[in-house]
């Protein structure tokens, strides 16, 4: 079994209904080399009480005001030590307890992004989204589709080479990051 360090970063703000589901999904993963980081934007709805119940199993967490989702994600990146980083935001979950283990098994030397599919669950239906199908995506892949951040495990090397998420893009900074890092 490969033993690659993985940092899972959850950003949250006032989501008491989703945070526990996400925390349990991360903590119940069978893969054993996980660092779990939670960046809370200063929640006031009880979210912090949930986080504190699990704090002995969370590698790092903080609760303070931020300047938006990408600012919070950047805070998580700066605290992360894993070779690959994943953003499993509050309310999102892994489909099974072996998701990370199975994804890491797909890793091949030189991969900069490892990703899977996502399952969107609505009240009356489920929809599987297939993302990019290349392990070395390029600009043409982004023309056709996108990488879903909760299904993407991004090499630390990409953040070291291209920098953090550009916070001036309030809704699509991850897309710009993927585009920038894959076109070179």
Features:
33% helix, 184 residues, two-stranded antiparallel ribbon, 8 strands, six-stranded mixed sheet, globular, 7 helices, alpha/beta
Q: Secondary structure elements and their pairing?
A:
Layout: E1 6-12, H1 16-27, E2 34-40, H2 47-53, E3 60-63, H3 69-79, E4 84-87, H4 99-105, E5 113-115, E6 118-121, E7 126-129, H5 139-144, E8 152-155, H6 156-162, H7 173-183
Helix pairs in contact: 1-2
- The percent range for strand residues is 15-25%
SSE arrangement, N to C? EHEHEHEHEEEHEHH
* Computed CA radius of gyration, to the nearest angstrom: 16 Å
The number of helical runs is 7
Q: Can you summarize the main beta sheet?
A: 6 strands, mixed
Number of strands: 8
Give the rounded overall mean pLDDT: 85
Helix content: 25-40%
Question: What strand line-up does the widest sheet have?
Answer: 3-2-1-4-8-5
* N-C termini distance: 31 Å
Low-confidence stretches: none
Structural class: alpha/beta
Coarse morphology = globular
Polypeptide structure, described:
The chain has helices at residues 16-27, 47-53, 69-79, 99-105, 139-144, 156-162, 173-183, and strands spanning 6-12, 34-40, 60-63, 84-87, 113-115, 118-121, 126-129, 152-155. The chain is of the alpha/beta class and 184 residues long. The strands form two sheets. A six-stranded mixed beta sheet has the order 3-2-1-4-8-5, with helices on both faces. It has a two-stranded antiparallel sheet with strand order 6-7. Helix 1 (16-27) packs parallel to helix 2 (47-53). The longest helix is centred in the N-terminal third of the chain and has 12 residues, at 16-27. The chain starts with 5 loop residues before the first strand and ends with a helix. The mean pLDDT is 85.
């Amino acid at each position: 079994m490969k033993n690659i360090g993985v940092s899972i970063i959850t950003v949250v703000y006032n989501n008491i209904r989703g945070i526990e589901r996400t925390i349990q999904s991360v903590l119940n993963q069978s893969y054993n080399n996980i660092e779990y980081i939670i960046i809370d934007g200063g929640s006031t709805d009880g979210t912090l009480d949930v986080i504190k119940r699990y704090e002995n199993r969370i590698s790092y967490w903080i609760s303070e005001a931020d300047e938006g989702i990408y600012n919070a994600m950047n805070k998580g990146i700066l605290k992360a030590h894993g070779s690959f980083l994943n953003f499993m935001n509050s309310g999102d979950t892994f489909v099974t307890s072996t998701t990370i283990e199975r994804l890491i098994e797909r890793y091949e030397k030189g991969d900069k992004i490892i990703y899977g599919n996502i399952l969107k669950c609505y009240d009356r239906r489920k929809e599987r989204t297939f993302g990019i199908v290349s392990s070395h995506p390029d600009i043409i892949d982004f023309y056709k589709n996108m990488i879903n951040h909760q299904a993407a495990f991004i090499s630390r090397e990409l953040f070291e080479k291209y920098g953090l998420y550009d916070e001036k893009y309030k809704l699509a900074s991850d897309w710009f990051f993927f585009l920038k890092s894959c076109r070179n």
